[in-house]
């Protein structure tokens, strides 16, 4: 039985990915900042572990408790939408601590065991904001673009040791907890002088033509994990796939 460790499984894409791999008969190590056993089906194949990816101590404890991990999915993330000049730097740092340095720290923690076994897969979940620049998302985009570059480079050295490295790039998922999962209110990040600029953007956000469902991301992570080629990029969801076809064809 193969073991997958997933960060940020208390809601959204991570929770659905944990369900998906459990249904496929995998041993799933579902990690949450505050583990809640009611969120996933009871199963002897499920291990719940506490993990905050911004804490080195939490990472060390979780990796030690996990034992051998065949697949690591770095899914945990937080967002920020707003005018960059109004986004407090302490919040920009918090976004990077989670979305960027948290992912890097998790990779560093799991690579030694995968390198020793000369096998393993690391999937880093970024976003369709890396496929085309979107407005009012500068700090968030930077945190995810950093992981796109990081993963592309890392893939070369890990390939040498039989470890596959993948990027899953989900589109906009209005049904996850992503927009609520922040202590910074969008209204505070749109100063009055930006109101005219922001209004049509928020109107378009409210009525998207294509979106991403949790199941799209879980299925794409499944595809990425089972892909034995050197393919790096896996857009997930109808909007992300359409965007990647436009931008990568250009
Ligand atoms: N929804 C979208 O529109 C969208 C689009 C593109 C990409 N994404 C990316 O997809 C991933 C999942 O997002 P989602 O939409 O499923 O949002 P979500 O429902 O808010 O899930 C995010 C998960 O990350 C966890 N998390 C946050 N900070 C953490 C930390 N420091 N340590 C460990 N876990 C932490 C949250 O746990 P808590 O319950 O403890 O807060 C939650 O389980 C993120 O990387 C996000 O950037 C989302």
> Regions with pLDDT < 50 over 5+ consecutive residues?
none
Spatial separation of the terminal alpha carbons = 42 Å
Bound molecules: NADP nicotinamide-adenine-dinucleotide phosphate
- How many beta-strand runs? 7
**Approximately what portion of the residues adopt beta-strand conformation?**
5-15%
Sheet with most strands? 7 strands, parallel
Main sheet strand line-up:
3-2-1-4-5-6-7
In CATH, the homologous superfamily goes by the name NAD(P)-binding Rossmann-like Domain
Overall form: globular
Order of helices and strands: EHEEHEHEHEHHEH
Helix content: 40-55%
Quickly count the domains: 1
Q: Gyration radius, to the nearest Å? A: 18 Å
Family: Belongs to the short-chain dehydrogenases/reductases (SDR) family.
GO molecular function: oxidoreductase activity
Keywords: Oxidoreductase
Protein name: NAD(P)-dependent dehydrogenase (Short-subunit alcohol dehydrogenase family)
Task: Provide a compact summary of the structure.
By secondary structure, this protein is an alpha/beta fold.
Describe this structure as you would to a colleague.
- The chain has about 250 residues and is α/β, with parallel strands linked by helices.
- The chain has a single domain, classed as Rossmann fold (3-Layer(aba) Sandwich), CATH 3.40.50.720.
- About 45% of the residues lie in helices and about 15% in strands.
- It has seven helices and seven strands.
- The chain has helices spanning about 10-25, 55-65, 90-115, 140-160, 195-205, 215-225, 240-250; strands at about 5, 25-30, 45-50, 70-75, 120-125, 165-170, 235.
- It has a seven-stranded parallel β-sheet, sandwiched between helices.
- Strand 1 (about 5), helix 1 and strand 2 (about 25-30) form a beta-alpha-beta unit.
- The radius of gyration is 18 Å and the shape is globular.
- The mean pLDDT is about 95.
- NADP nicotinamide-adenine-dinucleotide phosphate (NAP) binds near residues 10, 14, 52 and 127.
């Amino acid at each position: 039985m193969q073991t997958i460790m997933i960060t940020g499984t208390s809601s959204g894409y991570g929770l659905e990915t944990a369900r998906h791999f459990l249904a496929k008969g995998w041993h799933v190590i579902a990690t949450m900042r505050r583990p809640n056993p009611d969120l996933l089906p009871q199963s002897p194949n499920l291990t719940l572990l506490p993990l905050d990816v911004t804490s080195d101590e939490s990472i060390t404890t979780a990796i030690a408790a996990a034992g051998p991990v065949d697949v690591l999915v770095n899914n945990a993330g937080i967002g920020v939408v707003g005018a960059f000049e109004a986004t407090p730097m302490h919040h920009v740092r918090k976004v990077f601590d989670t979305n960027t340095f948290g992912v890097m720290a998790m990779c560093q923690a799991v690579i030694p065991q995968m390198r020793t076994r000369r096998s393993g897969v690391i999937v880093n979940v970024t976003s369709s904001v890396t496929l085309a620049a979107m407005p009012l998302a500068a700090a968030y985009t930077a945190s995810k673009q950093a992981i796109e570059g990081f993963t592309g480079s890392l893939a070369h050295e890990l390939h040498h040791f039989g470890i596959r490295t993948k990027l899953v790039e989900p589109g906009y998922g209005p049904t996850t907890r992503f927009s609520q999962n922040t202590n910074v209110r969008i209204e505070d990040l749109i100063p009055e002088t930006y109101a005219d600029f922001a209004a049509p953007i928020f109107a378009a956000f409210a009525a998207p033509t294509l979106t991403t469902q949790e199941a799209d991301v879980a299925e794409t992570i499944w595809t990425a994990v089972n892909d034995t080629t050197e393919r790096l990029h896996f857009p997930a969801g109808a909007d992300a796939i359409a965007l990647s076809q436009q931008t990568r064809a250009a």
